[in-house]
Amino acid sequence: MGAFMLRRTFLQNTLLGSGLALAGMQAHDTRGSARSAYPFHTLSEAMEAAHFDPRAADSFTVVWAADIHYGVGNPQEILPPILHEIHRMSPPPAFFGIVGDLIMKASLHFGQIPDRQQRQEAIAEFRQARQALAGLNPAIPLKLALGNHDTYPGEETPALFHAVFPEHPEFHAFRVGGVPFLFLNGGSSGLLGERQRAWLRSTVSRMHKPGRALVLALHQPSLGRVTRERGVAAAVRDALAEVQGELWMVSGHEHCNQDACFQLPQGAITQATITTANPAMWGTEQPGYWVYGFARGHLAARIFRRLGQGYAVAPTPPRIPAHPLRLPFEAQEPQILWKVLVGEGDTPYFAEAEAGWCLNYWYDAKRLTYRFPLVLAGGEARRLAVLEEASNEKAERRYFLSPDGKDWQAVTPVERQEECTLLAIPKVCQAAGVVMVRLENCTVSGFALTR
Predict the structure, then answer these.
(1) Are residues 264 and 410 in the same domain?
(2) How high is the pLDDT of residue 34?
(3) Quick check: 313 and 23 in contact, CB under 8 A?
(4) 92 — phi, psi (to 5°)?
(5) Residue 35 reports pLDDT greater than 70
């Protein structure tokens, strides 16, 4: 994630956070040992340190996991250890929520569409996950959100998922103890279609009470992005534009624990990313899961369980200053003469691509070429702005401009403003009335002609 994110790994939060998180720790121990990072041996000890009583009236707990990725590693080492501990919780949690990426092969990487054999393998992985989840106590409801590996670009409804989990809706909402929980489908690209966005708006309006808690469950923690998975920020800002209260979004995807707070028109929302529960996956602090404690309609405690090491209490994330929740080109709007977003009218200008097609962005473009007539901006454009980010840290991003697609001029160095890369339009392109752009080794979401 970009530098604009408030990156706080759980270890940093534990060592630098509130007194509650430091309870039972030795302040002089800076070696990052399991004991210092996860100071509590039992969930009860952690709850006591957080001053949370799950047996109190109007209190309940929720268990969250993410990125279980059946199809990778030993299946007996993924969910069974977590379910064993869930079954020992007293009182039991109100539900067990998994925030996406139950499997791997519905789409192995951004933009990848499975062939027939891979779809059958994906269904087999879903069946493997279902078999493990059959071990969950039937008295504890199971709630599922879809991740990018559970679906693929162009899959209008999650058919592979529903082939094995037909009773689980694509997106849904419910209340527990007066707290609304909204499970969303971020799909393969973090693009919430208009049907889901309309549902989200109406459900928030119907279920949320001003000043109270509301929790979204969405696989992609992309509130700060305008390039990769840019649809998340637009959908959430739209649905929560008039909402005031204690707002949370629980996500997975990044295989690490971190919090980030974002500004909404009437308040702020905390994006809480949680690590993978699969010990065979890449990431940090894995395998692990979270226990959220709610009291009187508010989130009162967050406890992280690092399997095999211990428990830790999360401090309350800082809400000031909150990061702006921007939409594409919003920061550059005063200078923009014309713009287009990938997947939203860019087809007439597209020339060629060696990249992953992700519906509303191009991922890991080895080569991506577009052609823009300058008449689109009334002939007044002096720069081409590109919404792009690095997709491979080992490969240098490169930018070329041309009037005809034959003679290319490398642009270096480049100017960057917020999420935009700005390329000065050469005089030869001005004279031809056309600017062609070729981008290499980056992820791209949109273009604009600016002053």
Answers:
(1) no
(2) 53
(3) yes
(4) -65, 155
(5) no
| Residue span of the structural domain in which 361 resides | 330-450
End position of a domain, from candidates 278, 309, 324: 324
How many domains in the chain? 2
Amino acid at 49: A
Is the pLDDT at 27 greater than 90, yes or no? no
* Residue 101 to residue 286: CA distance in whole angstroms: 15
Residues 348 and 409 in one domain: yes
Q: 95: which residues sit within 8 A by CB, 6+ positions away? A: 62, 63, 140, 141, 142, 143, 176, 181
pLDDT digits (tens, 9 = 90+) for 173-195: 999 999 999 999 999 999 999 99
Phi, psi of 178 (to 5 degrees): 85, 0
The residues pairing with 387 across neighbouring beta strands, listed in sequence order, are 420, 446
pLDDT computed for residue 399 by the predictor = 98
Q: Are residues 287 and 355 in the same domain?
A: no
pLDDT tens column, 248-264 = 999 999 999 999 999 99
79-86 vs 116-133: helix crossing angle, rounded to 10: 30
DSSP one-letter string for 5-47? S----HHHHHHHS-HHHHTT--TT--S--HHHHS-BSSHHHHH
Distant-in-sequence, close-in-space partners of 6: CB < 8 Å, separation ≥ 6: 258, 259, 260, 261, 317, 318, 323
Contact 310, 42 (CB under 8 A): no
Q: Within this chain, do residues 231 and 130 fall inside the same structural domain, yes or no?
A: yes
Strand 258-263 with 323-324, pairing: parallel
Roughly what angle, to the nearest 10 degrees, separates helices 194-207 and 231-239? 30
